Amino acid sequence: MSIKEYNGPAGGWGALKSTTRHLLKSDNVAKNIMNLMKTNQDYGFDCPGCAWGEKGVPGRFRFCENGAKAVNWEATSRRVDRTFFAEYSVEWLNKQTDYFLEYQGRLAEPMRYNAKTDHYEPISWDDALDLVAKHLNALDNPNQAEFYTSGRASNEAAFVYQLLARRLGTNNFPDCSNMCHEATSVALGKNIGIGKGTVTMEDFEIADAIFLFGQNPGTNHPRMLETLSSAYRRGAKVLAFNNLRERGLERFANPQNPIEMISYGSTPTTSHYFMPKLGGDMAVVRGIVKILLARHEDALQRGESVFDLEFIETHTQGMDAYLAQVKATSWEQILEQAGLTMDEITAAADVYQNAKRVIVTWAMGVTQHKHSVATIEELINLQLLFGQVGKEGAGLCPVRGHSNVQGDRTVGINEKPNAAFLENFENAFGFAPPKEHGHNVVNAIEAMLRGESKVFIGLGGNLVSAAPDTDRVAQAMKQCNLTVNISTKLNRSHVNPGHDALILPCLGRTDIDMQATGPQKVTVEDSFSMVHASSGRLDSATEHMRSEVSILAGIAQRTFGATDPVDWQSLVDNYDNIRLLIEKVIPGFKEFNQRLDVPGGFYLGNSARDLNWQTPQGKAQIATNALPESVVPHVKADQQTDNMFVLQTMRSHDQYNTTVYGYDDRYRGVFGERNVVFLNPEDIAAQGLQAGDLVDIESVWNDGIERKIYGFKVVAFKIAQGNIAAYFPEANALIPLSSKGDKSDTPTSKSIAVIVTRSQEAPLLARA
Ligand SMILES: Nc1nc2c(c(=O)[nH]1)N[C@H]1C(S)=C(S)[C@@H](COP(=O)(O)OP(=O)(O)OC[C@H]3O[C@@H](n4cnc5c(=O)[nH]c(N)nc54)[C@H](O)[C@@H]3O)O[C@H]1N2
Ligand SMILES: Nc1nc2c(c(=O)[nH]1)N[C@H]1C(S)=C(S)[C@@H](COP(=O)(O)OP(=O)(O)OC[C@H]3O[C@@H](n4cnc5c(=O)[nH]c(N)nc54)[C@H](O)[C@@H]3O)O[C@H]1N2
Ligand SMILES: [Mo]
User: Fold this and answer.
1) Residue 108 CA to ligand 1 centre (angstroms)
2) What is the pLDDT of residue 63?
3) Which of 470, 196, 240 is nearest to 365 (CA)?
4) Which part of the chain is the Molybdopterin oxidoreductase domain (predicted)?
5) Alpha-carbon distance 177 to 181, whole Å?
6) CB 509 within 8 A of CB 45
């Protein structure tokens, strides 16, 4: 275990070395090298890593270090089967780390929990599917079932899933995106009429300025570094706004560029680096607009303008009210919340004003706060004032997480389906889907805790470790009559079973999916609304696993019986049949099957990019919001103490959400451990602490529940003062379920008020 400063660029030899090490650990070396060569190729499988798009030279390998880890992790030859579960009780497994659980290998056969022995035991597929049907049919009301989705599910699996739930009669679709980009979908949907980004990969090639808010591409979207460094090289300005100094936002050595590799060279990824306070981005943008508004008013005196008045007039509504609000916002409040100086905000405003084409990107650093919707609205406002939406080389670019999280939403995983979707659905299937809004993640957990929801089904994911308030989510699961996890790997959600519980092992992206009509392909949609096909390549030791589609259709057949109007079997036999239904229900998928043969896939289109505003008003909306009074408004002045900080939770370099691949966070210089907390050196000194000391962290909330984690090692880091950072899922126990974003219900994973104290005793052995 060690902490040492990392001085190299992101990528480079370190990335290659790490890729090789993870390959060697997978027990499937030769196959996995072949696998990597198929990743993101036109006829291979889509990388199960992130949702960044792909555009490149055909035939070239297109994977990154973290994509390689994701592929290796899934394609391991280790198996978790009946012998494993006979050996270990669920209670024992629940004491192991997340790393331990997933590292055991792929789930090999269906298992059912036996509460008497506290062990999982083998069950046949027929009996398992019958059991799910029995529980679903026993509900008084379909809204007592929760259908959770994780964004790795393909369009085909997700479509069949939503069909199953709606056939049953519920819109309860808690979804990982509720914890992720929900605020994005809310703000974009309301203000520009479509909840998706407006840019394409090509736009990055001609943008003059790229503003990056709250994301760490070096770890989470490594292929984006190539895009950023090439933008920098051709002279574009790239501005990072990040609470931490992240190496990937400074320099990148492209492992696919022989000259950079051999010469130990690297290219900067950004031209400017600003470190706002947590949740300060809205204030930063407000400040930029305030400066530009003053310049605009000066220009008007000379008969000129700084804003794009023609665009504003033709395409938007709401400018006057917004500008009045900007004027009313004091500089004092802006600078205090932003945590940047006037000079820094002015520098950013200068770049913005001088650029003809601007792209604004953002991810979790923006979406996981209480005021995230308002922050994204501020980003949209800035772009609208300058006509930077709907033109080439410019636009709004939320950088999505899971490889198909956007697609899952597109094909109907939505707890609040709109009228057009419901109508298309009814026309396609001849029965009316439920209209009543269903549960998102927070609603679902609350309903389970109240005992109202009784069946939990998870199509992938790991709700217990992904959601806030870990102990309460575990409790919610345990109270269910039945929990079903359709999964590839063992995780915390399996070892917190309901009274009855099933683990249903499924095929992953890398596996061959063989059905009656031959091997099947699935489709995914990236952050740029490109839809493309993915077909797996591996087929060893998967004989007792089933495809997600086949499992879901199996549940449906047994729940609804042989006379059901939906021909579920035809969907399993040939996934083209699912795509024909998607084509009927979802706009943009005309000739879906035929268009998949085009290398690289097809573009779904984006109405806002076409300046077609699908808002009730028919125009883009410029929203007016006051800055929040504080990032953690529940903390009253008299509760403030010198050891109170705002905590963000984030990913290390060796993890994929709740999947922990290893204990290193190379670019942040942390090796061999995860129970660490990053503090500014001045804050460390002011607390009378030293790097390496152990501290306990307790959250400040208003419901009387104690939330505390123990024995976290202090790491000195370049982070805004008053802010601290720790990894998720370890720090999830600190986030109250009821601390959530306005209008998004997203847990506030990036702003939690906490008190830090020196650990009094030897650290309790962390459970996870
Ligand atoms: N290898 C790998 N790839 C992944 C994932 C993974 O876990 N591992 N997860 C996938 C998923 S689901 C997602 S959603 C994405 C997540 O991608 P990111 O959004 O990059 O994920 P985080 O690790 O949460 O990083 C948040 C970043 O925002 C900064 N930040 C936090 N709060 C603030 C703030 O208030 N203001 C500003 N300006 N910055 C802030 C943090 O310092 C950090 O650099 O990545 C996807 N890709
Ligand atoms: N504190 C804090 N909490 C957070 C976040 C944060 O930044 N801070 N980020 C949030 C975000 S952005 C997200 S997206 C969520 C993620 O929440 P989830 O999507 O629920 O979590 P994952 O860790 O991605 O899920 C991992 C599990 O998915 C299963 N799996 C993997 N591949 C497949 C597959 O192909 N099919 C099936 N059926 N199962 C598969 C494996 O069994 C694995 O154990 O977490 C959220 N939670
Ligand atoms: Mo995410």
Assistant:
1) 32
2) 62
3) 240
4) 106-488
5) 6
6) yes
Per-residue model confidence (pLDDT) at position 540: 77
DSSP result, 664-697: -BGGGTEES---EEEE-HHHHHHTT--TT-EEEE
Q: Looking at the predicted structure, is the pLDDT value of residue 200 above 70?
A: yes
Q: How many residues does the chain have?
A: 768
Give how far Cα 497 sits from Cα of 136, 448, 475, 559, Å. Answer: 17, 13, 9, 22
Rounded to the nearest angstrom, the distance between the alpha carbon of 556 and the centre of ligand 1 is: 36
Cα Rg for the chain, rounded, in angstroms? Answer: 25
User: What is the 460 CA–ligand 2 centroid distance (Å)?
Assistant: 8
Distances (CA, A) of 403 to 316, 407, 582: 33, 9, 19
pLDDT, tens digit (0-9, with 9 covering 90-100), for 238-262: 999 999 999 989 888 877 776 776 6
The Cα–Cα gap between 200 and 509 comes to 24
List, for residues 129-160, the tens digit of each pLDDT value. Answer: 999 999 999 999 999 999 999 999 999 999 99
Question: 39-75 in b/e burial notation, b at 16+ Cβ within 10 A?
Answer: bbbeebbbbbbbbbbbeeeeeeebbbbbbbbbbbbbb
Per residue, what are the HEC states of 325-367? HHHHCCHHHHHHHHCCCHHHHHHHHHHHHHCCCEEEEECHHHH
- Residues 572-581: tens digit of each pLDDT: 999 999 999 9
pLDDT at 58 > cutoff 50 = no
Cβ(340)–Cβ(274) below 8 Å: yes
Distance CA 493, CA 443 (A): 18
Separation of alpha carbons 646 and 585, rounded Å: 44
Q: What is the mean pLDDT of the chain?
A: 93
Q: What is the DSSP string of 522-579?
A: EEEE-TTSEEEEE---B-TT-TT-B-HHHHHHHHHHHHH-TT-SS-HHHHHH-THHHH
Pairing between β-strand 2-3 and β-strand 670-671 as defined by DSSP bridges: antiparallel
Of 175, 215, 244, the residue with max ligand 1 atoms within 8 A of its CB, to mutate for a pocket test, comes to: 215
Would the pLDDT of 61 be above 50? Answer: no
* Distances, alpha carbon 21 to alpha carbons 3, 10, 18, 25, in Å: 20, 17, 5, 6
C-alpha atoms less than 13 angstroms from C-alpha of 101 in its C-beta half-sphere: 27
Ligand 3 mean position, distance from CA 523 (Å): 19
- Distances in Å between the Cα of 71 and the Cα atoms of 67, 462, 543 are 6, 18, 20
Q: What is the DSSP letter of 264?
A: T
Smallest-distance ligand from the CA of 510 = 2
Q: Which ligand is nearest to the CA of 249?
A: 1
Percentage of residues in the chain having pLDDT higher than 90: 82
